[in-house]
Amino acid sequence: MTAQLNPRGDVAVLVPAAGAGVRLGPGRPKALRLLGGEPLLVHAVRRLAAAASVHTVVVAAPAGELDAVRELLAPVAPVTVVPGGAERQASVAAALAAVPAGPEIVLVHDAARALTPPDLVESVAAAVRAGHDAVIPVLPVVDTIKEVGAGELVLGTVDRAALRAVQTPQGFRRAVLATAHAAATDPLTDDAGLVEKLGVPVVCVPGSEYALKITRPFDLALAEHLLATGA
Ligand code: CTP
Ligand code: MG
Fold first, then answer.
1. Which of 54, 102, 133, 207 is the least crowded, having the fewest Cβ atoms under 10 Å away?
2. Predicted structure pTM score
3. pLDDT tier, 1 (very low <50, low <70, confident <90, very high otherwise)
4. Taking a C-beta distance cutoff of 8 angstroms, is the pair 46, 59 a contact?
């Protein structure tokens, strides 16, 4: 069944989905690879559309797959599909440019985090609504982290207590994200990094294990298990 978005919602979600998925191995662009028989992008958009505050979803798709992606998503939710760029940052910028007037909160969410629960979308949006200009969901780092130099020689041990692994959706006051992208020079892998460069405070909220980024074949196998057990 096609989900309805909330016409009174205050949240637009940008979904960069134009990556190749090189680390997943040969095959179609990653957002179109199957998880439980459906593309990762379908799982991701279905969960976004289930979040109560979401007014708009804009997907940045691989340039050669625009029609395929539109067809795929039509029965899932009413989304806008635009061509992505060569870097994730360019894909996000393209999606941002397609957000209509209205939503004042913009979330940026990787299609590769296909099993992200709607509750996480709402908790990030709520933190922006509460007055934070930039919000990221994070998990504590569980492994010991070493800094390593030439020849795999250990240079030192980083204090894990001060580290966080960062997920998406990342949430922003719309004007802050627009300014950060307009000012961007080097491509970064996350949007909060652009906002940090503006000197705008970025605040952390608890992330979710289910928001794992499907990057390598192991992650896809884990996601298959999570889906089969109710994610
Ligand atoms: N992405 C994008 N446009 C790009 C590169 C990445 O929209 N030019 C998106 C991906 O589709 C993904 C998200 O950004 O949803 C996170 O990127 P990543 O996990 O690195 O995905 P890929 O770039 O597809 O994977 P890889 O780096 O292994 O090729
Ligand atoms: Mg990539």
1. 102
2. 0.97
3. confident
4. no
